[in-house]
Amino acid sequence: MAGFILRRALLVLPSLLGLLVVCFLLIRMVPADPAVALAGDNATPAQIEAIRRSYGLDQPIHVQFLRYLEGVARLDFGQSQFSSRPVAEDIAQRLPATLELTMAALLISVGLGVPLGVLAAVNHNRWPDFVLRVVSVAGVAVAAFWLAIMLQIVFAMQLGWLPLRGQLSAGLTPPPGPTGFLLLDSLLAGRFDLLADALRHLVLPAVTLSLGGLATITRFTRAGVLDTLQKDFVFYERASGYAPRRLVWIYVLRNSVAATVTQIGLLFGGLIAGAVVVESIYDWPGIGSYTVQAILTADSKVMLAVTLLVGLIYAVVNILTDVAHALIDPRLRDRA
Q: Per residue in 238-261, pLDDT tens?
């Protein structure tokens, strides 16, 4: 297993390097001048040129990229033009909120998607199957920003059941916990009032972010279970009088989740990327809203660092997905 993980990890470095090259070139091709955005509307040409020299923007593009790689090798991602703080500090402060939101959305997607997919497969071509197929297609088609606004209007503004935006209510401050994760730190500090308030704020953005993933997990689980139900061992166990529920939920499901596990790995990276829109609408203090601010201010250091971070998270999750596949089916270790 160690060799299996090592081979997967060695493929990450060239992938991340290629991601940085593409992102760096795309940022430099954008007509917006970061020196102009940083200097402001009333800056003189001399002031803009001075800023350009101080940030090394007057150097050839390959020199700028090599200097950036040198900083990344030292875990120095530069200073944010927007916050005037080191980018690494800003990301470390905001990343727990994004991961908390992403994990909650992933939990909803998997926790509901897998049982619903099994339910649809077991009731193939009956009314539960038709209903879930329609709902899954609608879940993929609905835009996240539209769903977020509708949920805010119904559950926050009209019914008043849930908060409209933010991570905590006004007047409440996060506990000085060791992890940076609001839910975990509130639990460790024994602040159950903060925990309850944070959970209420988490519901709407997590549900919004999870809808597309929920539909995807449901469809892939349904397809995998339907295929496994046609296997010979299933017919044999049924003829032997094996309990149908135990057969489906233990043996059939385990032999059906390979494609679903792959989608869970891909879904995690998609949720991180999709958090940009959701965090902006719900005013969630994560790296998504931070990235939007960076884009509006042409803060290239932040955009590059966030891109590298998302790529790294995506790579790590895919390695964990491969490990899960190898644990489910040990034959994959020998093929890799």
A: 777 777 777 777 777 777 776 677
